[in-house]
Amino acid sequence: MQCNNAASLSSSQQTPVFNGSYEQLHRYSIEQPEAFWEEQSRLIHWETPPQQILDYSNPPFRRWFVGGRTNLCYNAVDRHLADRAEQLALVVASTETDTTREFTYRQLHREVNDFAAVLRRLGVGHGDRVVVYMPNMAEAVFAMLACARIGAVHSVVFGGFAAHNLAVRIDDAQPKLLITADAGMRGGKVIPYKPLVDSALAAAQTPPPHVLVVSRGLDVDIALQPGRDVDYATLRAEVGQVDVPVQWLESNEPSYLLYTSGTTGKPKGVQRDVGGYAVAMALSMLTVFDVKPGQVMFSTSDVGWAVGHSYNVYGPLIGGATSLLYEGLPTRPDAGVWWQLCEKYAVRTLFSSPTAIRVLKKHDPEFIRKYDLSALQYLFLAGEPLDEPTALWINELLGKPVIDNYWQTETGWPALTLLPGVDMKPTRFGSPGFANLGYNTRIIDENTGEEVGPGEKGVLVMVPPLPPGCLSTVWRNDERFIASYFSHFKELLYSSLDWAIRDEDGYTFILGRTDDVINVAGHRLGTREIEESVSSNAAVVEAAVIGVPDELKGQVPVVFATLRDEHAGNRAGAAADLRRTVEQSLGAVARPARVYIVDSLPKTRSGKLLRRSLQALAQGNDPGDLSTLDNPAALDEVRGALDRGA
Ligand code: ATP
Ligand code: MG
Q1: Which residues does ligand 1 sit against, CB inside 6 Å?
Q2: Same domain, 271 and 301
Q3: Most buried among 185, 219, 262, 471, using CB within 10 Å?
Q4: Would you say residue 187 lies in a domain?
Q5: How far is ligand 1, taken at its centre, from the CA of residue 152, in Å?
Q6: Which percentage of the chain shows pLDDT scores above 90?
Q7: Does residue 334 share a domain with residue 242?
Q8: What's the pLDDT band for 570 if we cut at 50, 70, 90?
Q9: Which listed ligand is nearest to 410 at the C-alpha?
Q10: Within a domain: residue 183?
Q11: What is the pLDDT of residues 245-256, one digit of tens each?
Q12: Are 127 and 247 in contact (CB under 8 A)?
């Protein structure tokens, strides 16, 4: 079994040929990881080739491509100048500022060099951390790539986070510089960033000596603190056009830090490497997303999330593709805005989240139908369980494969997926498919650690060493890395902390997080199963299920649901109907004890249900760390609903 990636390293025209079926290729990647990854390593440029493919002498830590020297920015930008300098590299469409900015690889190279020169002028160098706190604007991408170019470690903090979240991340990273914008925008409203940055810096223990402000001219009065704050345009003009040499890094040096969403507790600072990540990006663009050099990928994520890092910035650019970045809501000016962009730029692969599709589902499908989507081949959805009604709805509208994609900030690239670029298997609703190449996944019994059979629930784990691209460790906290992920079982295994089940054909289904299981009179029910059932009711848009203590049964399910507009008038009727739906599909044991109809559910800024906050409120407890909560009003509404009773 060979995948013929051989040949030229320098030319991004060279795309590999993957011979054989998914099963063969996957087996090869697991049974002969060094041979497999040695071949994949040729997808990127190495200034010095690796001396050793894998060093696993200190489990669970592993080092890929040891001794190899490379650079993410070189692979994402410089390497393409020979073949595709005039091709679009980056398109940034903003329905907030009503602008579309396009950059060819040549222009991107210029922007990144200018940015890197400014960073150097501010004293930033190899190994220094840089916190990037910006909206989805082109300069956020330039800043990330400029850091990568000079070997600085970026830590992008989602621009919607409050001062407190930012301060905590500053103290963890101890940056030499913070880069921000004058303002962000949401739903047409200007949100000044600078005052927020000022209070974060005041609250931080280790504030950086400098703040670099990129002004978008949003007409906000920003006060620059002399000696500390610097205006980007001013310093750029002063420094002038300089070509900044690439800092070659050993494959295992840190490239960036990124925090998990904080859905289950305090976010973990994921540390990514250089060489392994670059190889995983190059491979996944071809095998998972089926995007070749010159083709267009549109990921609707914010650059502040894992998807944004991997499939708005590094993946598409390392792959010589065109990356589309979007700033704005999916429904403004109307619910057709993403599909219009797909038509305009002949997007081949669209990557979004189930949450976003559920938002679109509230609107007229004509907003999708009216655009020419003939170039579009796939819609990938990741980040949360993809419920069947939502998947069916969008699948019928598009008539293209809707591919459920399972991964974590920690993994950096899909762990469970279909591989249309290799061997496209039929989609199966509710399942993200199979283990990705290089991922040795198992589903095991949480008590015995034994592998469970088809149809039996267990914990999804990965047999280490983790493949390239996955986290190296938790930033400056090796103990937390081991304690969080590798200390759950007798055997040394990476726990995903998610429940899963595999069917007879090997399709894996995610059943929810390991702390989201309800025990009703001895029956273990995944909250996800009940949520699926509730969502199958046509009146429902979205549902969250939690378990609350019950004297008789131990725990009982409680449902929170949002309704489609046309059903909003009859909340009581809908609640009764939902109870029946669940009872009919899952049996009396799953019958919700209470159903609360609300206008919105509490979500993290990355769009995930914050079940633990519902759980706490329903039990009269403190909702805990709400720093990643997106919509505090949703919690107030839940409080009100709980006070009034179901
Ligand atoms: P934290 O780890 O801080 O609690 P988080 O787990 O929400 O937050 P992320 O890394 O953003 O942080 O999310 C990864 C999690 O999202 C997965 O572990 C899983 O629970 C869920 N997830 C991602 N993709 C899917 C999917 N396709 N189907 C079901 N669940 C998914
Ligand atoms: Mg997690």
Answers
A1: 260-265, 267, 382-386, 404-409, 432, 496, 498, 510, 513, 606, 608
A2: yes
A3: 471
A4: yes
A5: 28
A6: 77
A7: yes
A8: confident
A9: 1
A10: yes
A11: 999 999 999 999
A12: no
DSSP run (H or E) holding 36:
helix 33-40
522 & 563 share domain: yes
Phi and psi (nearest 5°) for 230?
-130, 135
Cα four-point dihedral sign 369, 375, 376, 378: positive
ipTM here: 0.99
Rounded to whole angstroms, how far apart are CA atoms 324 and 297?
Answer: 6
Domain membership of residue 151 as a residue range: 69-501
Does 548 lie in the same domain as 463?
no
Distance 606 CA to ligand 1 centre (A): 10
pLDDT tens digits for 423-452? 999 999 999 999 999 999 999 998 999 999
Nearest bound ligand to CA 508?
1
> Is residue 469 left, alpha or beta, with left meaning phi > 0 and alpha meaning psi from -120 to 50?
left
Tell me the ligand closest to 414's alpha carbon: 1
Ligand nearest to the CA of 498: 1
**pTM across the whole model:** 0.90
- Which pLDDT does position 17 carry in this prediction? 65
Q: For the domain that residue 274 is a member of, what is the CATH number?
A: 3.40.50.12780
The best mutation among 310, 311, 407 to test binding of ligand 1, ranked by most ligand atoms within 8 Å of the C-beta, falls on: 407
SS (H, E, C) 95-115: CCCCEEEEEEHHHHHHHHHHH
Residue of minimum CA distance from atom 28 in ligand 1? 385
Among 509, 535, 608, 630, residue to substitute to test ligand 1 (most atoms within 8 Å of Cβ): 608
Ion ligand 2 neighbours (CB, 5 A) are: 260
Mutate to test the pocket of ligand 1, among 161, 384, 513, 613 (most ligand atoms within 8 A of CB): 384
Give the distance (Å) from ligand 1 centre to CA of residue 409.
8
Same domain, yes or no, for 263 and 404? yes
Considering the domain boundaries, does residue 509 fall inside one?
A: no
Nearest-atom number in ligand 1 for the CA of 528 is 29
Same domain assignment for residues 338 and 224: yes
Structure tokens at 118: 């400014």
Cα dihedral across residues 55, 61, 67, 72: positive or negative: positive
> Would the pLDDT of 185 be above 60?
yes
Rounded distance between C-alpha atoms, residue 226 and residue 214, angstroms: 16
pLDDT of the residue at 164 = 87
Instruction: Give the pair of three-digit tokens for residue 365.
Output: 């499908």
Supply the DSSP symbol for 426.
P
Domain total of the chain? 2
| Chain mean pLDDT for the chain | 93
Residues 455, 549 within the same domain: no
